[in-house]
Design brief:
The complex is a heterodimer of chains A (322) and B (259). With 322 residues, chain A is α/β, with parallel strands linked by helices. Chain A folds into 2 domains: 5-226, Rossmann fold (3-Layer(aba) Sandwich), CATH 3.40.50.300; 237-304, YebC, transcriptional regulation domain (Alpha-Beta Plaits, 2-Layer Sandwich), CATH 3.30.70.980. Chain A is built from 11 helices and 14 strands. In chain A, strand 9 and strand 10 (221-227) form a beta hairpin. In chain A, helix 3 runs parallel beside helix 5 and helix 4 packs antiparallel against helix 5 (146-159). The longest helix of chain A has 18 residues, at 176-193. Chain B is mostly helical and 259 residues long. Chain B has one domain (4-253). Helices cover 76% and strands 0% of the residues of chain B. Chain B is built from 9 helices and no strands. Chain B has helices spanning 4-21, 23-47, 57-88, 91-95, 101-131, 139-166, 174-186, 201-213, 222-253. In chain B, helix 6 (139-166) runs antiparallel to helix 8 and helix 6 (139-166) packs parallel to helix 9. Chain B is globular and about 55 Å long. The chains are: A alpha/beta (322), B mainly alpha (259). The interface between A and B is large, with 40 and 33 residues. The complex binds adenosine-5'-triphosphate and magnesium ion. Adenosine-5'-triphosphate sits between chains A (16, 18, 24, 26, 44, 46-52) and B (253-255).
Chain lengths: 322, 259
């Protein structure tokens, strides 16, 4: 497929040298591309190197090695020019100017990227309404709720006409409703404006809900990269809960231990055996082990696909092979 | 690079908004400086035994004080902007503008200096009214001198700003520098010509010649003006270089937005 590549990262590496300590290999030779009109999610455990990667793309952290092209512009060679097409919202709620009002923030951010706020008045108005900030447009940013501050931050990243928007944990610290709201708005923006959004998150809902494509990082390396739906299919994860009456025998337990990704939860009157299937054979294995001792299966429940499991499994896999 | 004028207008507007919204602080600041002056002044009167008529010493006090005040606020501006924005978390956003950051911070400082100039004017009028010492305020001659002196002060500001990027808590040590500035304003450049190379000294002595001795800019030789310009450019260049070195170190360490 020949899509418009707006961001190209080649062999990006960051080694932090910390005094009297071994250098930290925060990002280790990663390469990827991002395309027009997609939401690309970065996923990975704490310390995987997501924020470092984002900040290197923003020219805020100097890479040890590698190249970054933003709409064809080498960010190392022409820093300011590359920044014209990229805006970012970093972790936390400190991305906006707290003393300025909603409208003043949007105007100031536009001028930072060289756009005359007077000439894009309609656009500013549009974003104020789009992000549901009309009522608060003359309120100082410090007085907004956390969710509104986050919406304003994202709006400031949109208003200056940048094609690539980087969001580091955009739903962190938001309540369920605010988080849902942000996800909904992000989806709409991508659909309507054909921008590229690159986000990092720990929230599987964000991934499943908004991301077209996912890059999973662990210990500075990319351990998986695919369309969100392919990743789900790749593992064709099916999750079953077997509820067995009473306790299972030690022999049965020993046999179950041989099966990967199987959990046993022993309760007072019943035992729950939870399996995630890679191939259907495991299902029959479980029933075979149970039937050996004539265990009574009270219930078998088919659980839905869940991205979290896929994620944990990939990270687990990458650590075993490392 | 997009139009620098748009950036300048944006920064100016932000500055004005913050002044207006924190008007109390602004007025409070002016009053504080004025009160400090009154204390100095009454102390001085005490020492000189109520004998105000001691030639040009009193005028020297007024000029010295006002100049010190102006320079002190100006040279701190880069550092203050960087520490403040860093504390508020917005420094990284400023760094992501479509303009080189050094340009942005210089424009921001020049705007601050301009406002500072106006406040200094207010303080000057207040002090002149109090002391009944009327100086020769030849604006036409003073403005170019202030601008050229401002260059070297900006240079010092950039150096300190750079250091404050690396040593986040540099602010507390900065108090010492404030008193060095008193020295810079007061050094007798005529007796020790080498001292002309200090930032702000030469400019201060030339400003004194205008305000106290009634000279005007045409009384200065072109060599003197050239020296003033040269010193200004020297410090500004040095400031930019040192700032860049500190910035690059901070980006290398990945601690630009950390506080
Ligand atoms: N300025 C720094 N100096 C030294 N080490 C750093 C610095 N910043 C990050 N690191 C280290 O680099 C690694 C990657 O950190 P990074 O913040 O990029 O991870 P992350 O994927 O964003 O994690 P999280 O999910 O917690 O936000 C970690 O081991 C971290 O401790
Ligand atoms: Mg992070």
């Amino acid at each position: 497929m020949n899509r418009d590549c707006v961001l190209k990262v080649i062999g990006l590496t960051k080694k932090y040298s910390v005094k009297k300590q071994q250098a930290v290999n925060a990002v280790n030779n990663i390469s990827f591309e991002a395309y027009k009109g997609e939401v690309l999610g970065f996923l990975g455990p704490n310390g995987a190197g997501k924020t470092t990667t984002i900040k290197m793309i923003c020219s805020l952290i100097k890479a040890t090695n590698g190249k970054i092209f933003i709409e064809g512009v080498d960010s190392n060679k022409s820093r300011s020019k590359s920044l014209r097409n990229i805006s970012a919202v970093f972790e936390g709620n400190r991305n906006i100017f707290w003393r300025l009002t909603v409208r003043e923030n949007l105007e100031f951010f536009a001028s930072l990227k060289g756009h005359n706020p007077k000439k894009i008045r309609d656009k500013i108005q549009y974003y104020i309404e789009f992000f549901d900030l009309k009522e608060k447009e003359n309120e100082a940013a410090r007085n907004l709720s956390r969710g509104m501050q986050q919406k304003l931050s994202i709006a400031t990243a949109m208003v200056n006409g940048c094609n690539i928007i980087l969001l580091d944990e955009p739903t962190l610290g938001l309540d369920v409703k605010a988080s849902y709201n942000i996800r909904k708005l992000l989806k709409e923006i991508v659909k309507e404006e054909n921008k590229t959004i690159i986000l990092t998150t720990h929230d599987m809902n964000v991934v499943q809900d908004t991301c077209d494509r996912v890059i999973i990082m662990n210990k500075g390396k990319i351990v998986a990269e695919d369309k969100t739906k392919n990743l789900l299919r790749l593992f064709s994860m099916k999750k079953y809960n077997f509820v067995v009456e009473g306790k299972i025998s030690p022999e049965q337990k020993k046999e179950f231990k041989m099966i990967p990704y199987l959990d046993i939860e022993e309760k007072e009157l019943e035992t729950e055996i939870i399996i995630t299937l890679e191939n259907p054979q495991i299902f029959y294995d479980v029933t075979r082990i149970l039937s050996k001792e004539d265990s009574i299966i009270k219930n078998i429940e088919n659980k839905e696909l869940n991205f979290e499991k896929v994620f944990v499994k990939i990270i687990g896999g990458s650590e075993e092979s490392a | 690079m997009p139009s620098v004028w748009i950036l300048t207008k944006g920064l100016m507007k932000k500055e004005i908004i913050e002044f207006k919204r924190y008007l109390f602080n602004t007025i409070g600041g002016i009053l504080t400086v004025y009160v400090i002056f009154l204390l100095l002044f009454s102390g001085y009167k005490g020492v000189s035994g109520m004998n105000i008529d001691t030639g040009d010493t009193l005028e020297n006090l007024v000029v010295g004080f006002v100049l010190w005040n102006f320079l002190m606020f100006s040279y701190q501006d880069v550092k203050n902007t960087i520490t403040e924005e860093n504390k508020r978390g917005t420094l990284e956003q400023l760094y992501m503008s479509a303009y080189p950051f050094t340009l942005l911070i210089i424009i921001k400082s020049v705007i601050s200096m301009f406002f500072n100039f106006i406040f200094t004017g207010i303080i000057l009028i207040l002090t002149m009214a109090t002391t009944k010492v009327f100086l020769n305020i030849d604006i036409i001659s003073l403005i170019p001198l202030l601008i050229l002196t401002g260059l070297s002060i900006l240079g010092i500001g950039l150096m300190l700003g750079g250091l404050s990027l690396i040593f986040k808590k540099v602010g507390s040590y900065m108090q010492i520098v404030q008193f060095l500035i008193v020295g810079l304003v007061a050094v007798p450049v005529n007796r020790f010509p080498i001292l002309r190379l200090l930032p702000g000294s030469l400019g201060a002595s030339m400003i004194r010649r205008i305000t106290i001795y009634g000279e005007n800019i045409l009384d200065f030789s072109s060599f003197e003006m050239l020296k003033l310009t040269g010193v200004g450019i020297l410090y500004l260049t040095l400031g930019c270089i040192i700032y860049k070195i500190c910035e690059s170190k901070v980006m290398e360490k990945g601690i630009l937005g950390h506080f």
